[in-house]
Amino acid sequence: MFDRFTKGARAAVVMAQEEARALRHDHVGTEHVLLGILAIDRGPGAAALASLGVGFEPARAYVAGLGHQHDDALDADALATVGIDLAEVKRAAEESFGPGALDRSPKPFQAGHIPFDPAAKKSLELAVREVVHRQDTEINDGHILLGVVGAEPNPATATLRALGVEPDAVREAVERELPHQAA
Q: A biological process (GO) annotation for this entry (predicted)?
């Protein structure tokens, strides 16, 4: 399958893995694929995102926070059931030991292969289907982006929505950017 990827599409997939690693995530998800497309910044997918005002830095900031807010809320709720106020514990710890005293230590660096999660795999499968449907000869970042938004709901579409962009708008923008086959 990867032999049909353009250089830009291959680079976006490699960057997705690098972003997952840089964020110390243990898998490559659709959110990392989205970041890979934005980081490479070439091809119809990147052009479509740029036309919608989606930038790498805001998307990365949102993805970096995925998972952490939910975990903290669950921790606070669990502790509250036994009468412990997590916010008060954090305040007291920071007062005694300094800011960030209870912050989680970063996950260890993960060298080597980082697996793609099921949604990311599905998005790549949908990209291939899109190429076949359109009778295109190669897979570019636009096809990958169509696969990502086609595999919703997922963290990438949540990221796009958080940035004020609906998946349907992404589909339309990609369709405008993809080269059209002669009939």
A: proteolysis
Which residue ranges in the chain fall short of pLDDT 70? 1-2, 67-79, 100-111, 181-183
CATH number at residue 150: 1.10.1780.10
Residue 158: per-residue pLDDT:
94
Percent pLDDT > 70 in the chain is 84
Per-residue three-class SS string for 128-150 = HHHHHHHCCCCECHHHHHHHHHH
Q: Which residue has the tokens 């399958």?
A: 1
Dihedral Cα 62, 63, 69, 74, nearest 10 deg = 150
8-state DSSP, 28 = B
Question: Would you call 108 helix, strand, or coil by DSSP?
Answer: coil
The helix (run of H) or strand (run of E) holding residue 102 is none
CB 70 within 8 A of CB 62: no
Task: Establish if 140 belongs to a structural domain.
Answer: yes
Residue 91 forms part of a structural domain: no
> Encoding tokens for residue 112?
């080597």
Respond yes or no on whether the N-terminal peptide bond of residue 167 is cis (omega within 30° of 0): no
> Rounded to the nearest 5°, which phi and psi values hold at 62?
-65, -45
State pTM to two decimals.
0.76
